[in-house]
Structures are given as C-alpha cells and as structure tokens.
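Q: Give me a protein?
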Amino acid sequence: MAYINEIVDKTSIPPNSLEELRDLYVQMSRGEHAIRMSRRSLKVMKAMLDAPSETAAKSISELAAENEVHVSTITRLGKKLGLDGYHGLKNLFRNNLAAHRSFYSRQVKSFLDQEHGRLDVDKTIVEQVVEDEWSNVMVTLDSFDEHNFAAIVDLITRAQHIFVLGLRGCYPVAYYLSFYLQMIRDHVSLAGKSGHMLGEDFSSLQKNDLVIAIGVAPYTRETVEACRLCRQQGIDLVAITDGISSPLASETSNFLVAAIQGSYFFSPVVALIIYVEALLSELVVRMGDDAVLRLNHTENILHKFNIEI
C-alpha cells in the first residue's frame, strides 16, 4: 500500500504532456489517485483524450456544447489537475499536436545526439538495438498478466470471425498474426488491406465477432476510431498496445501491453511479436486436433499450388 501511495503522490504534479494526462485519467477512473473527479468530468476528460487533434482546435464553448456541460466544468477540470484552467489544459493538446508533426525527425535527432555522446564507442548499432529490445522484452515479461492473457485466448477461441487490424508501422505485425491465424482456424480477415477501406471491412461485423487491434505511439487515427466503434457497437475487442493509457486500451479491458522503448525513428516491435507468437502457441494448445486438421488442409493447398520450396 505504501508503494501505491508513493505513486499517487508523484502523479499529483500537474501533467506536462498528453501521455501524463492519459496516465492521470486511467488512475482517476480507477479510483487510484488522490484527486477525485466527478463522473461527468471524467467523461469530458475522456472525450478530449479520444480526439486530441480536434480538442486542440476547438474553443471551450464548442467542447462544452459537445459534452453537454457548462464551460465552467471544463475550467474547473483544468484547475483540479493543477493547470492554469482551460488554457493550461488546452496547451497540452496543442503541444502534443505540434510535437507529433515532427515525431520522426525528432526521434532521429535524439538518436544521433545520443550516438555522438556515447562513451562506449566499441558498442555497435546491432548490439545497441539488441540490448534495447532485450530490455523491452524483460519489461514486458515483468508486467505480464496471465489471467488477462487467458481471457484473451478465450475470446479468440470463441469468436465467429476475427478481424486483425494494424496500420502503418504496425501493419507487418498484424499481417504476421492474421497469416498464421488463418492456418489454424477459419474466418480470419486482415482489415485495412491494400484497396480496402476500414468502413468496408468493418461493415460486416457481427456481435459474435472479434477485432484484434495493434497500435503504438504515435497512434494511427483510423485504428483508434475503429476501437471506439467496437466499444460503441458492442463488438469484442482485443488491443495489443504500448500502455494502459493508450487510446486503444481505453476502449477495452482486454489488452496486452508491450514495451517499445528506444531512441529510433521506428517503434521497436520485438515485444509485440512475442505476444503474437505466444497467442498463436496457446491457441494451438487449446485447439488440439482441430488445429492439426486445419494445418493439414492448409499444407495440402500449398502443395497443390507448389508455393513452397
């Protein structure tokens, strides 16, 4: 309990970024923070975090009208967070918007600065990347929730149709998962393929279907909106993401958090891939002979097309 109190005391400092604001929201919504917010204030806070670009551009009157609250509610929200009322709150969103416009170039600059200042000149880039990814894997393992993982495997096993979604940098991870899922079970689709619009892919979603969304910072708008749609439509959603305050994780209780730390212009994905491989391995165990029969069928088709050498 003393450890939790220590965390709460540290997070009582006003947030300096949107990431810190998301962390605060998660803690307050769970009742784990010293600051107590009304349900209405938390709802407004979530709406602002769900659409950060729009929040940065809108006036306090527009935000109040959209959330059906008085402007004073939003002003008090900012002050209660230790900020300069609405202006301090809005500045977090404006700064986030400006920062994301130069996300990749800033990451490269940070990496180059780090390289120029390295004391261990004998360490190669390969060694540095391996060390960073190894650290990510160990952090991910340390926070692994076995109960949550089992519940996610149950959802995948029971789902009538599975849609796997991962765009831009997360597309290769989504493709990898969907490719091998299709080898062991029927009715698996990769959403957002070339020539497809997400609206077309998601228009066929049914109540017994499942969406597995993969996304890390900087989050792709379409992925976040797809996750929000799942919650609104009552569709089961599994998120594989980079934090409990991720906009993907905020739409579902079924999520896996992977560490992706690294001073690169790309997001390290080894921890994400490990989760994917763990899910595939556990599914094969659960499905048993059914998975073997499906694999045999797939292998026969591959043989007829003479695909593999």
